[in-house]
Design goal:
With 342 residues, this protein is an all-alpha fold. The chain has one domain: Up-down Bundle (ABC transporter transmembrane region fold). Helices cover 83% and strands 0% of the residues. It has 12 helices and no strands. Helix 3 runs antiparallel to helix 4 and helix 3 runs antiparallel to helix 12. It is elongated.
């Protein structure tokens, strides 16, 4: 059974991360940048609140200028940190798949011919190329990013309750519905991603085998028959991708609607609080910013979980090849002394 159809495999993830152990500095740097970006998340809303409630209300022009410059500085700092964060996570992923691809190809060279007789060439190509890129996504778009999103959500929610617990509860009132929608989307998109990967492997296998055996196809005049088979496989691939597009086209508008409902509730209740002088105008604007910051990572978490899951599916196939025991070299393929390949 593939990883896509069972519980999350922590042992498989540990095995993947063993290949990251030579690059501990890059990994630690990515984690530190993740923490820094999470902590900087609520800073701009807090500064906006201070400007509105204290400096504008107090007609402190000098304070407004300094706070505005501070907000620009925070934005620039976040941009630099985001750049280095993206660089480190992608660099780590590329280094890991380089080592993993080298290990896989070295292992495949040691297999006897029985392995290649029973394994379609297209499947081996998929394992060595496209599956590797999916494993790289575990580092560039998967686990580290998920950790960062959870940390950012925790920091933002904590700050919201510290600033005003009533506005915080109202802001979070639609979150249960969002989590339900996210869970449904995550499960559906996981199924379609699994189908897409299956059809990609089928396409690779078909094309590889038929290009290799094109002479026989032409000799027996089977071009039309083979084209029909290819169109059938390609049709299944398109249908699998269309299903994923369908789920995305439903999920993101649902998230936007729930976000708009939360903002509407904040404006409705908060405006009354401002009139009754129970809530400051700065807090009201800051909470609208918090809602936008909350819904973005929650919306993307489902997609990132599926990216992680698909990386696990691909890595399972790769490690299945690495764990293959048919490594004895056939006598007819054993290297001979003074034998040249060309």
């Amino acid at each position: 059974m593939s990883t896509a159809g069972k519980a999350f495999d922590g042992n498989l993830l540990k095995r993947i991360f063993r290949y990251a152990s030579p690059y501990k500095k890059i990994f630690r740097s990515a984690l530190l940048l993740t923490i820094a970006l999470s902590l900087l998340g609520p800073v701009r809303p807090l500064m906006t609140q201070q400007i509105l409630d204290h400096y504008i209300a107090g007609e402190n022009v000098k304070g407004i200028v300094w706070m505005s410059m501070g907000m620009i500085g925070v934005l620039i700092l976040q941009s630099f940190l985001q750049f280095f964060h993206s660089w480190n996570t992608n660099l780590l992923g590329q280094k890991v798949i380089r080592d993993l691809r080298n290990t896989l190809f070295e292992k495949m060279q040691s297999f006897n011919l029985r392995f290649f007789d029973k394994t379609p060439i297209g499947t081996s190509v998929t394992r060595s190329v496209s599956d590797m890129e999916t494993v790289a996504d575990i580092f560039s778009e998967g686990l580290i990013i998920i950790i960062g999103d959870f940390l950012q959500l925790t920091v933002i929610i904590t700050v919201m309750f510290i600033v005003d617990w009533r506005l915080a509860l109202i802001s979070l009132s639609t979150i249960p519905l969002l989590f339900i929608a996210t869970n449904i989307f995550k499960n559906k998109i996981k199924e379609t991603f699994g189908e897409v990967r299956t059809q990609v492997a089928a396409l690779n296998t078909f094309v590889q085998e038929h290009l290799t055996g094109m002479r026989m196809v032409q000799v027996f005049g089977r071009q039309e028959e083979e084209l029909s088979k290819f169109k059938a496989i390609n049709h299944l691939h398109r249908k699998a991708n269309n299903r994923s597009v369908w789920y995305y086209s439903i999920f993101f508008p649902v998230v936007e609607i729930l976000s708009a409902v939360s903002i509407g509730l904040i404006v409705w209740w908060g405006a009354g609080g401002v009139i009754r002088e129970e809530v400051t105008f700065g807090n009201l604007i800051a909470f609208i910013m918090y809602i936008n910051m909350l819904f973005r990572p929650i919306r993307e978490l489902a997609d990132k979980f599926n990216t992680l899951q698909m990386g696990m599916v691909s890595s399972e196939g790769i490690f299945k090849v690495l764990d293959e025991e048919e490594v004895t070299v056939d006598e007819e393929t054993a290297p001979r002394k003074n034998t040249r390949l060309y």
